[in-house]
Amino acid sequence: MPQIHGxxxxxLSIGELSARSGVPVSALHFYERQGLLRAERNSLxxxxxxxxxxRRVAFIRTAQRVGxxxxxxxxxxxxxxxxxxxxxxxxxxxxxxxxxxxxxxxTALTHLRNDLDSCIGCGCLSLKRCALQNPDDELGRSGxxxxxxx
Length: 150
Description:
Radius of gyration: 23 Å
Mean pLDDT: 79
Largest sheet: 3 strands, antiparallel
């Protein structure tokens, strides 16, 4: 049961945080190990989370959903003063910083999608598109592997 002072709930157990956020307990433990989430321990050595952990978990999940790596999410959270929970203003600022990276990923994925039909089944990975556009595997002389993907 969470502590209640003056009618306000101040702490959540890991089960309550999981139920309220929709995030499995195992994921919350993982976020803790990664330094993205903090819990205090009570006298019975049980994890207790401040109520603002709900917003922090929502921030983490939303950032993951748009494709941000946990290391980038952690860096964003670490950039906040006194490791406070992100506000709407923080999200706006951070999402602007991430936009360029997301745009680059979208461009790369669009390129991969558009070229997928012309190279499926070839298997050589050194061809830009196919033997018709790369006669005698000219690119293969440059080395093996996906040399044109980056």
